[in-house]
Amino acid sequence: MPIKIPQAKKKTEKKASGGRKIPFQSPKGMHDRLPADFLYFDKIEKAIKKVSLFYGFDRLETPLLEDIKLFERGTGLTSEIVQKQMFTVKTKGDGVLALRPEMTPGVVRAYIENGLQYVSNPGKFFYCGPVFRYEQPQHGRFRQFYQVGFEVLNSDDAAYDAQIIIASLKIFEELKLKNVVVKLNTIGCKNCRAAYVKKLKEYYKNKTGDLCRDCAKRYTENPLRLLDCKQEKCQPLKAQAPQTLDFLCAACKAHFKSVLEYLDGGQIPYLIDATLVRGLDYYSRSVFEFFAEGVDFAIGGGGRYDYLSETLGGPKMPAVGSACGVERMIEAMKLQDVHISSKSAYKAFLIYMGDQAKKQGMLLLDEFYKAGIPVKESFAKESLKSQLRLADKEKVDYALILGQREVFEEVILLRDMKSGTQEAIPLKKIVAELKKRI
Ligand code: AMP
Fold first, then answer.
1. What fold does the segment set 35-189+249-335 form as a domain?
2. Atom 22 in ligand 1: which residue has the minimum CA distance?
3. What is the pTM (predicted TM-score) of this model?
């Protein structure tokens, strides 16, 4: 049976203890991560760590705030993220910082700034953390959300495009997500893209009146993004638009062919989607997205970004990466009824009666800590009944019961929670005894 994760109450119902409301709520589109949510979050973090260890990605963490220009130049002035979605902070001088709306420009900056190209080349990194976008919150779309992702810096080898896709798929596999589809396309390099964009503009030239407001703007600012539009109105034109695949130069054609061959080599199924272009300005060549069965939004995406470093004023440094949305993966797990084990991390529950026992309990917990055995307590409760009820709720195998009499006799009652049987164990031996039984 899949366990039911309690959903956070609606904001209007949120009450502080004692039934009184407090006049504060988490900011719009931003959510508290509650203990029950960590059943999922921990699993995802464990998955990316396991996959990264195997494929040789090291963890890299950048600050939450970066110079706004990093994203203006990197993510791109014509991207929706930069145009509409950045949370900004004014510094005391003239500077403006932005809460990172995505990770990649920060990772590239950190790689160059810290001279990591002399340590790991190609640089293979993974990250895991929150990003911020001033979006209109809706289902699966938040203002603060978490991403896990991989980057391979300083290599144009198509094998890494395939490896990034495979590593991302491994995360979904670790999470037991079923029927994940990879959609894949190539948008070419600087050279061949120019000819394609020219053709695309010619195609749309006399049709701008039939486009949505955003696309009318895209036609002049970033025509490639015309293919990215999800509005109903723009779909018929999009379906007939020229395709990047027909305009690739020989080098891009060969690169894309290699990516497909490496995926075939790894027996990875994929779908080529000629309309896939992705929302960020810096992509070149391979672009891809991941979709899970039953979920109507992408759970991850990525692509090659061969010019990003140069755009930021750095060296020539081809690279490829992917980012997966943590909340969206969780949503997919819930929709697909993925079973999450709710087994307690605690092996036993310490129950005390009386002040002497409570004091003795402090020392006992320290001994269990040293032995590496997690033991739960509830010092705020006094009655045996309520403490036993909590031990039951925690689903521990054993309760350790310490009353005034036991303290006096230097023993503790070891109660088997399943059978209800209990025996007195000398206090000095309880750690070793519990260790033996768990
Ligand atoms: P992007 O950085 O836009 O390529 O997005 C990578 C992944 O992050 C997407 O495939 C989604 O899974 C997730 N994502 C993007 N935007 C949001 C959002 N506003 N709320 C939740 N998840 C998001």
1. BirA Bifunctional Protein; domain 2 (3.30.930)
2. 325
3. 0.89
